[in-house]
Specification:
Elements: H1 3-12, H2 18-24, E1 28-29, H3 35-44, H4 50-61, H5 75-84, E2 85-86, E3 91-97, E4 103-108, E5 114-121, E6 126-129, E7 133-135, H6 144-147, E8 150-153, H7 156-173, E9 182-185, H8 195-206, E10 218-222, H9 226-235, E11 239-243, H10 249-255, H11 264-277, E12 284-290, H12 298-307, E13 313-319, H13 333-345, E14 349-352, H14 379-382
Parallel strand pairs: 1-2, 6-9, 9-10, 10-11, 11-12, 12-13, 13-14
Antiparallel strand pairs: 3-4, 4-5, 5-6, 7-8
The protein binds S-adenosyl-L-homocysteine (SAH).
Length: about 400
Amino acid sequence: MSEVQTQLAADSTQQVSFDTKVAATKVINLLGLDRDALEAFFATIGEKKFRATQVMKWMHQLGITDFQQMNNLSKDLRNQLSEISCVQNLEVAEDLISTDGTRKWLLRLHDGNYIEAVFIPEDERGTLCVSSQVGCALDCSFCSTGRQGFNRNLTTAEIISQVWLASQLLDEEKKPGRKITNVVMMGMGEPLLNFDAVVSAVRIMMDDFAYGLSKRRVTVSTAGVVPAMDRLGDVVDMRLAVSLHATNDELRNELVPVNKKYPLKELMAACRRFIDKQNSRSRITFEYVMLDGINDQPEHAHELIKLLKGIPTLMNLIPFNPFEGSGYRTSSKNAVRRFSEILHESGMTTVVRKTRGDDIDAACGQLAGKIEDKSRRHRRFEEPRFGME
Ligand code: SAH
C-alpha cells in the first residue's frame, strides 16, 4: 500500500470509543477534548454536564491551566482533576517576528518533534495558520514541508495548543490588531489525513465556550483527499480550501501526486457535493501556486475557468515561495497579473496572496519544523488519541 493508502486505511480504524481512550492514557489532556468529549469525561467521573463548559471557558478563554485556580469548581473536583487530567501545552522553542508583523512559532512536541504555527496580521483580520501533522506524506513537488517527509499525526490537543499559545502570546503584546479572527489549517501536513483530530479541533475553535470563531472564519485546506472531503461535509460546517495548482491530470499528477489516486474529475465532483451540503452563501477557496512557465500561461487560466464552472469559487493565486533545491521559479509579476485578469473578466473572485513573513521562513510551503525520525510512520497506531504526557 502507498503511504496515502496506509493513512486512509488508518483513518477508518480510528473510531476509538471514549472509554478505551481514557483507559489508554493515565492523564488526560483536557485541552484536546471538544465539548461532547469533555461532557462524556465529566459523566464518567459522576459530574454534571455543565462542568464541561465551565472548564472550557477557564482553559480557552481565560488561559488558565492550573485547576486550583478554577474557582467555580469544588475543591474536591479540582483535586480530582489534578490527579487524573492536565491542561498541557506545547513548548515554544522559537518565537520570531517578521518586519511585516507576521509572527512564527516553532513548537516542540513531547516526543522531540517540532511543528510550526504562523500568525498573519492584515488590515481587518488576524489569521493563524495551524499545522495538522508532523511533516506531510503527500510529497507535493513544490512544497518544502513535503520534502521533510512524514512522522505522525498531531493530536487534537497539539492542534489546539497552537491556537491557545498564539492567543496568549499575542495578548501579551498588548497591541491593537493582534488578535486571532481566523484560523486556517494550512500549516504543515494534510488535515484530511488526520481527520478525527482535525474535526474535534475545528469544533473547539468554533465553540462559543472556547474560541467562538464563526464557520466562515475556520478553513480546512486539502490537496484533494476525496472520501475525507465527503465525510467532512457531513460532520462539520466550515470553509473548505482545495489546493488545485493544475488544470489537467498530467500536470497535477506531477505537482500534487495524490491526484493519481483522486484525479481532477473526482475532485471536482467532490467539490460540487460539498457545496450542495452547505448553505447557499458558501463557496470553496481554491489555491493555485504560480510556477513560472509551468502553470501560469493564459491557456491555463482559460482551462481553470472551464474546470470550475458552476462551483462558487474564491480563487487564491499564490506566488511560489522558492526554497533551495526546489527546481521551480516564481512567476513574473506580469504573468500573475495577466492570469488574474483573465479570471476576473470571467467573473471569478480572484485574490493574489501577498507573500508574508518570508524573512522568517513563514510563507506558504516554507514551514518545515524539525522532524526527529521520518520513518516512524507506524507510531500513529500506538499512540493514545489524546494526552501529551
Ligand atoms: N496539505 C494541505 C494543507 C497545506 S496548505 C493542502 O495541500 O491544502 C499550504 C498551501 O501552501 C497549499 O495550497 C500548498 O499547496 C501551498 N504551498 C506549498 N508550498 C508552497 C510554496 N513553496 N509556495 C507557495 N505555496 C506553497
